[in-house]
Write a structure and sequence with these properties.
This protein is α/β, with parallel strands linked by helices. Helices cover 42% and strands 14% of the residues. The protein contains 18 helices and 16 strands. It has an 8-stranded mixed β-sheet with strand order 4-11-10-9-8-5-6-7. The chain has a 4-stranded antiparallel β-sheet with strand order 12-13-16-15, with no helix packed on it. Helix 16 (359-386) runs parallel beside helix 18 (445-463). The longest helix is centred in the C-terminal third of the chain and has 28 residues, at 359-386.
């Protein structure tokens, strides 16, 4: 399409600015001279200059003339902000791989632990939600404290008692979940130069918020009984303030459950070396016979006990808890309130109704039965599709399942070509590379069969 005279004049002026013939802040020649130079009318030049003014390329100053804008280059050379140089990408060991694939809308995420609707958790939540909606008052919605909804705290104390843990409800603080609980503890208690020891491999390997608080992290490997105390002793820096994070029941990623003797030994070791313990207990209700938590052993006031309902019910139900040492409860509640980390009041009422009515206890009992019934069927599906090229561990919890291929396979290449998003064991510390993590609980049996068939086809293609 033929350009108008106005467009031609506009382009010419822009070319002069880009070439440096008209510098930032320089006054343009008078309209009459521009019109003669371009061979057009003064009206055409006037309209062209007005358009450039709208774009921020020039400034029209009454009684002074037309000037090239000081920031004209921003309009002429628009650039995307260089976020890659702004952030330190080396602190994201997992995101460049796992999140790159899991965030594709068409992908099926194999690794993030959440429950399939097959477990009928919604059948329990919906009545509890309806009950809570019928009882909650407008005044309740605004009655936000750093401690949380007091009737829920009392029900949680009863819930803990069934695990043998006797804690007063006044020491229970309601939070939004595990990561929010960790954030509160870091803000309230972790010294800026502290060293945090955590079980590896685990999801803590890829937790970002530690970096923001300059907390140094040291991974501690686990054997079949739990965290290695021998390794912990060899790495403990006695010149720093130290904190230990442990996940004794169904440790995320490995699925290991710590033995009772290892819990005692770990607690005694931390007492001797003045190392506070953060015990995360988010998978307890999946276990058919969970042992008492480390908090149960705590006579010296060194254990923070934290958990959530997001894993057993729904990842969108943001209700968790912390039970700190009694002397620290008030301070932690203050931080919880003033940083806005407290859980949504409506969701707290829902969880309260589920605990009060016994619906949650009945549901988790049924959940464990369903897991027990599914286990041989999962194993059968795996044998059918992957039996000749891989091995796996079907343990008592069915939450974390590692598939290890017999021959070397480029798992990253598999992920790039797949409609599946999965985590490779090599992304975690102390881990082998030739394996894939799946959380079977997030799939129905039909979906699990489809997933393993897809994995089988991708693996066999890679082996050719």
């Amino acid at each position: 399409m033929k350009k108008t005279l106005r467009a031609s004049v506009t382009e010419k002026i822009i070319e002069y600015i880009k070439a440096g013939k008209l510098a930032a802040g320089q006054r343009l020649p008078p309209m009459r001279k521009l019109a003669a130079h371009f061979g057009v009318s003064m009206h055409t030049v006037s309209v062209a200059v007005e358009q450039l003014s709208y774009r921020g390329v020039v400034e029209i100053r009454p009684q002074s003339g037309v000037f090239v804008a000081m920031d004209a280059w921003q309009s002429l050379f628009p650039r995307q902000f260089d976020w890659d140089s702004y952030f330190n990408k080396s602190r994201r060991p997992l995101s460049d791989v796992y999140h790159m694939f899991s965030n594709r809308p068409q992908n099926t995420d194999l690794s993030f632990p959440c429950l399939s609707p097959e477990f009928r958790w919604f059948d329990m939540v919906w009545p509890g939600m309806a009950e809570a909606m019928g009882k909650i008052l407008p005044s309740d919605m605004n009655n936000v404290t750093g401690y949380g909804y007091d009737p829920l705290r009392k029900e949680l104390a009863v819930h803990f008692m069934r695990s043998g843990l006797d804690v007063p409800s006044r020491d229970i603080i309601i939070t939004r979940g595990i990561h929010y609980s960790m954030l509160l503890m870091i803000m309230a208690f972790f010294p800026a130069d502290c060293v945090c020891y955590y079980p590896a491999p685990s999801s803590e390997d890829v937790s970002e918020f530690y970096n923001a608080f300059h907390v140094k992290r040291v991974p501690v490997p686990a054997d079949s009984e739990g965290m290695s105390i021998e390794y912990l002793a060899s790495r403990l820096n006695r010149r720093n303030k130290n904190i230990l994070i442990t996940m004794p029941v169904i440790q995320p990623v490995t699925g290991v459950t710590m033995s009772m003797q290892r819990r005692r030994d770990l607690y005694n070791f931390c007492c001797r070396h003045n190392v506070p313990i953060v015990e995360i207990d988010e998978y307890r209700d999946f276990h058919p016979a969970p042992l008492p938590p480390i908090k149960w052993l705590d006579k010296n006031g060194i254990v923070f006990y934290a958990g959530t309902f997001m894993k057993t019910i729904s990842r969108s139900l943001g209700v968790g808890w912390i039970v700190p040492p009694s002397l620290l409860t008030e301070r932690l509640a203050d931080v919880n309130l003033f940083t806005g980390q407290s859980s949504d009041m409506l969701q707290q009422h829902v969880v309260y109704e589920l605990l009060r009515s016994g619906a949650y206890r009945d549901y988790t009992s049924e959940l464990r039965k369903m897991l027990e019934q599914r286990r041989p069927l999962l194993d059968e599906i795996l044998r059918e599709n992957l039996g000749d090229i891989a091995t796996w561990n079907i343990n008592h919890n069915d939450v974390f399942l590692w598939i290890r291929f017999n021959d070397h396979i480029d798992v990253l290449k598999m992920a790039a070509a797949a409609v599946l998003a999965f985590v490779n064991y090599a992304h975690y510390t102390f881990a082998e590379a030739n394996s894939i993590l799946i959380t079977p609980v997030k799939f129905s049996l039909v979906e699990f069969r489809s997933v393993t068939q897809e994995l089988s086809a991708l693996a066999r293609k890679s082996l050719r």
